[in-house]
Amino acid sequence: MARFPSLPQVPHLSDVFQRFGRGIWQLTDFHDVVLRGDSEWSVAERELMAAYVSGLNACSFCHDSHQLIAEIHGIPEATLKTLVEHPEDSGIEPCLVPVLAYLRKLTLTPSKMIDADSHAVFAAGVSEQALYDAVTICALFNFMNRIVEGCGVQTSQANLSASRARHQHSSDSSTPYTDFARKIGITPP
User: Fold this and answer.
1) Using CB atoms within 10 A as the burial measure, which of 5, 29, 145, 169 is most buried?
2) Is residue 21 part of a domain?
3) Span 142-154, pLDDT tens digits
4) Domain count, the chain
5) 27-58: burial string, b at 16+ Cβ within 10 Å, e else
6) Is residue 93 part of a domain?
7) Does the predicted model carry a pTM greater than 0.90?
8) What is the pLDDT of residues 111-143, one digit of tens each?
9) What backbone torsions phi and psi does residue 64 show, to the nearest 5 degrees?
10) In the Cβ-directed half-sphere of 149, how many Cα atoms lie within 13 Å?
């Protein structure tokens, strides 16, 4: 039996969003703002952060989905394969290494954050706004990982293929997440 009897046995995120639609438009709009809005981080780097946080949380659905989106936007697959365990050896930009260390600690032990953590990020040349953007991505994906895992959302090769096609088609869109919401029948309030 599925975690929620009203959902399919193997639910996709779209099933959850369609069944429990309250606030979903705002949530997908927030995804567009955070992952596609103005930022010092590229779309690829932001999707990499989303995949990284989801990987730390062992949320396969979000990790796999955002890893493939990061690939579409130019992050090499080899980089993403080693990222969770060894970010310093993954070939990412050097300024991302302390950012990912910050996101790791914020995800796994948030109450242990100290000023020295942000100072290490700033010492690598990252601005306060860029760190805030990374923190927002971290917060959003810790939130999304709990929805996905709490509702029993699972990934499949078919879902990943559909997601890849959708994101390749909308790679230049500034609103791919609200576009997805519209596609599954979620509309602005």
Assistant:
1) 145
2) yes
3) 999 999 999 999 9
4) 1
5) bbebbbbbbbeebebebbbbbbbbbbbbbbbe
6) yes
7) yes
8) 999 999 999 999 999 999 999 999 999 999 999
9) -65, -40
10) 14
